[in-house]
Amino acid sequence: MVMTELSGDLRAEVDELQVFLANISAQDWQRPTPFKGWTCEDVLRHLMFGDWLNYLSMTDSERFVDVMSQRAAARAAGKRGDGTEYLDQSVGHGAGLLAQWHRGLHQLCDLFKDADAKARMKWVGPDMSIRSAATARLMETWAHGQDVYDLFQVEREARDRIRHIAVLGVNTFGWTFVNRGLDVPAPAPFVELVAPSGEIWRWNEPDESNKVSGPALDFCQVVTQGRHFADVGLSAVGPTATSWMNIAQCFAGPAEDPPAPGTRAWAGN
User: How far apart are CA 10 and CA 136, in angstroms?
Assistant: First the structure.
């Protein structure tokens, strides 16, 4: 049941971004987004490679390990491809790339839908559950989708499916500090968020002196580092909550800093 819901939410996120990108011009595909100067094509190629790695891990784990080994060797030699060079198909541009990405992610959603949520799959770091893998794909698709919407300064309608991202943000509280070589403060803050639908979502023990509260959309934008904490409508009470919101990171990889205040904020968002 959980994988049916999660795969359905991922599919809906993919379809929404696909509709938006289908209406941009050929020139727009080469415009840099606010994320590291990546173009819209760069963003989609990155997502496509990550989707394919998930599919490969679930269908051919031996090849997944081999591809990871090849990529590590290439990077050690100073070659920094985007990963799509390992795919079985040549990757197109613009509308062609969009169609390939959309089709591949729907195939991945089909796999996720029928999978055991607790089953383990190989990944870049430690093995992880298929449920975690699907959640990570939804988070990354949503977060990089924000990069695209920000480029065009279009406000995206928030949906309650961002709850998966909020849960990931809450669950990576400790990771945020460990990843920076810092002691994990205790206890974790009480988190109380207002969903896009108006529902109230709560995590951890209630504590008004150690609390993060506000719109769930803002929380998701902060933990995915699409916004600086100073640019959203969240409230952080207490040193632990404040420290967390200033460095929150719900995604794997080396510690990253959020965008500087004001750099990802624009009128109307």
Answer: 10
Range 162-247 has CATH code 1.10.10: no
Give the domain ranges of the chain.
2-156, 162-247
| Burial of residue 209, with CB atoms counted within 10 A of its CB: 0-12 exposed, 13-18 middle, 19 or more buried | exposed
Q: Supply the mean pLDDT for the chain.
A: 95
Torsion of CA 139, 145, 150, 151, to 10 degrees: 140
Unique residue bearing structure tokens 């929404």: 16
The residue type found at 233 is G
How many Cβ atoms sit within 10 Å of the Cβ of residue 217?
24
157 three-state secondary structure: coil
Q: What is the mean pLDDT of each run of 10 residues along the chain (269 residues)?
A: 94 97 96 95 96 96 94 88 86 94 97 96 91 97 97 94 97 96 97 98 98 98 97 97 98 93 77
Percent above pLDDT 90 for the chain = 88
Strand spans (E) along the chain: 120-121, 128-129, 190-194, 200-203, 211-215, 235-237
Report the alpha-carbon distance of residue 234 to residue 227 in Å, rounded.
11
Record the pTM. 0.95
Report the CATH architecture of 2-156.
Up-down Bundle (1.20)
